[in-house]
Design a protein that fits this description.
By secondary structure, the protein is mainly β. The chain folds into 5 domains: 31 residues; 92 residues, Immunoglobulins (Immunoglobulin-like); 92 residues, Immunoglobulins (Immunoglobulin-like), CATH 2.60.40.10; 92 residues, Immunoglobulin-like (Sandwich); 219 residues, no CATH class. Helices cover 8% and strands 39% of the residues. The chain is built from 3 helices and 42 strands. Strands 3, 4, 6, 7 and 8 form a 5-stranded antiparallel β-sheet that branches. Strands 11, 12, 14, 15 and 16 form a 5-stranded antiparallel β-sheet that branches. A hairpin with a 6-residue loop joins strand 36 and strand 37.
């Protein structure tokens, strides 16, 4: 009997062990979480007691982000057990101010992020606080004038640069008191003295708060806050317009137009046709503007795709809004499509880009394609529209040339293209490197292709190394922000479904020259500088970022704006 009981006990123990093992295995396979992936960004705005640091959280590791930020210490390899500044959020870039520092002291800093699997750290960066505090600029804010329903004029006067040179100035505004440069910003050129700016895209009958600002190496100085309220909206009848039937239809072109029968309650400020491959196109889609106010007009539509149905409406706008005519449809003739179908497309960064313009809803005139592209994009992943990936401040010397391929879908988007020219780690001492190599910098801040840096590159249509065609220039951070706001862009799909047709060309790494995120992310340079770096526009799934600055050795797309 005793032998039977012992055997039964052993059998039950074995069954329980097997069941528990299976349960644990299944749970493990269903909940795999690894540590996050994070990059440390350069330290900026260093003064006697504070500095600005940050990072870029590129992967959550499959778990919920419990904490992210920057840890810092006077000893190498700081951890979260040392001083740290957290910054709530998940994927994307972030900035935070490191405080409580000691003057004339070297510090070590790393970005960090934690999930249930543990804490990851970015690469270590070092910086040294200044010996004495740098005095901030002295700024006054200009009274508000010329207030309408959607616009107002202001500006400022930088009466003193403070303890170092002015690196940025302009206006910031918001719907709440004490606006800062993390709110809406309109940058102004120059350093000291008076400047004026026009605030646009405001809402009627709304109170705004405005301050002028100027930045030097010590930080940001603000002028006194001024508040104002935009004028109330006035009901104005919109125009009356009809759409003309399409004619002269080919594989890639067609004609249409309209007739503005009445201006409505105010003068017509714009008219033309808009079209798309989906119903009910608006002026947020493709647009051809026509001259004049009332009466008949005709427009030629180009750049169409063969054997494709298009929807067209005439439009006319006045201060009361935009009126549309009846929708018409037509289908282009059959033939070979112009969309990507395999093979490759070379962006030759030494050759001029064809100038075809579009007019944004902001009133700005832009080129319809990326610099170096052979055409405007026909899809978000049209590799023939990716164009070249420029290092900030370099001209059309061939360094930006890429051979793009359609490729197959990989785990991180399209298979990357191939650089036409190789790389070198030898920094240039002039504005015009002696060859077309992509200059990498993985050694130290500021991660620039040039030594010493030159903040004056790419400034305006006559700027040094301006890569854009005659009469065009690299847009400012504020100009890009205005387009994103006007078209309510929240990700890559929305960015393509605008008049701009922004494609997902990805970027090129500053430290290796590797092409990244092709078919996944949209990166654009702006002409606006940020101390050692320059500002980018990043559009990815999950968010749009216009307050991102990166080292100038990185390779990003350029979309030119008319001066």
């Amino acid at each position: 009997m005793k032998k039977y009981l012992v055997s039964s006990f052993c059998f039950l123990a074995i069954v329980n062990f097997v069941l528990l093992s299976c349960s644990e295995d299944n749970s493990y396979e269903a909940n795999v979480v690894v540590k996050p992936t994070i990059i440390t960004t350069p330290i900026l705005l260093i003064n006697q007691t504070a500095a600005t640091g940050g990072g870029n959280l590129t992967s959550t590791g499959g778990g919920t982000i419990l904490s992210r930020g920057v840890c810092y210490s006077t000893s190498p390899n700081p951890t979260t057990a040392n001083s740290r500044k957290s910054n709530p959020g998940t994927l994307g870039t972030f900035e935070t101010i490191l405080t409580g520092l000691t003057a004339s002291t070297q510090y070590y800093a790393r970005a960090y992020a934690s999930n249930s699997a543990g804490t990851s750290y970015g690469a270590q960066v070092t910086f040294t606080t200044t010996a004495t505090a740098v005095a901030l600029p002295v700024v006054t804010t200009t009274p508000i004038t010329d207030i309408t329903e959607t616009t107002a004029s202001s500006g400022g006067n930088v009466t003193s640069a403070g303890g170092s040179a002015i690196i940025a100035r302009g206006l910031c505004w918001s719907l709440t008191p004490n606006p800062t440069t993390v709110d809406n910003v309109l940058s102004a050129t120059g350093t000291t003295g008076v400047f004026t700016s026009l605030l646009t895209n405001l809402s009627a009958n709304t109170t705004y708060y405005v301050r002028a600002f100027a930045t030097n190496s010590g930080g940001i100085g603000y002028g006194a806050e001024i508040s104002f309220t935009t004028n109330g909206a006035v009901n104005i009848d919109i125009p009356e317009v009809i759409t003309t039937d399409a004619s002269a239809i080919t594989q890639t072109t067609a004609s249409s137009g309209g007739n503005v029968l009445s201006e409505g309650g105010a003068p017509v400020t714009a008219r033309g046709i808009c079209w798309a491959t989906g119903p009910s196109p608006t002026t947020a889609n493709e647009v051809i503007n026509a001259t004049g106010t009332t009466g008949i007009f005709t427009s030629s539509i180009t750049g169409l795709i063969a054997n494709t149905t298009y929807y067209v409406r005439a439009f006319a706008s006045n201060s009361g809004g935009t009126a549309y005519g009846d929708q018409i449809t037509f289908t282009t003739s059959a033939g070979s499509t112009t969309g990507p179908s395999g093979g490759s497309a070379v962006c030759d960064g030494s050759q001029p880009t064809a100038v075809v313009t579009i007019t944004s809803s902001t009133g700005k005139i832009w080129m319809d394609r990326n610099l170096g592209a052979s055409r405007a994009a026909t899809s978000a992943k049209d590799y023939e529209a990716y164009g070249c990936l420029y290092q900030w401040g370099r001209g059309n010397d061939g360094h930006a040339s890429i051979t793009w391929t359609l490729g197959e879908e990989g785990p991180f988007g399209e298979i990357p293209g191939v650089a036409v020219n190789g790389t070198t780690a030898i920094l240039s001492t002039s504005d015009t490197p002696g060859d077309a190599l992509f200059i990498t910098d993985e050694v130290s801040i500021p991660y620039d292709w040039r030594s010493p840096k030159n903040n004056n590159l790419w400034q305006g249509v006559s700027g040094i190394n301006n890569p854009c065609p005659t009469g065009f220039r690299v847009p400012t951070k504020a100009e890009f922000q205005a387009e994103i706001t006007a078209y309510a862009i929240t990700g890559p799909t929305g960015a393509y479904n605008t008049i701009h047709k922004f494609p997902m060309a990805g970027s090129r790494a500053f430290d290796s020259g590797m092409i990244r995120a092709q078919g996944e992310e949209i990166w654009f340079w702006t002409s606006t500088t940020d101390n050692n770096d320059s500002y980018n526009v990043l559009i990815q799934v999950g968010g749009v970022y216009t307050n991102v600055s990166n080292g100038r050795a990185g390779g990003y797309s350029v979309r030119c704006i008319k001066n």
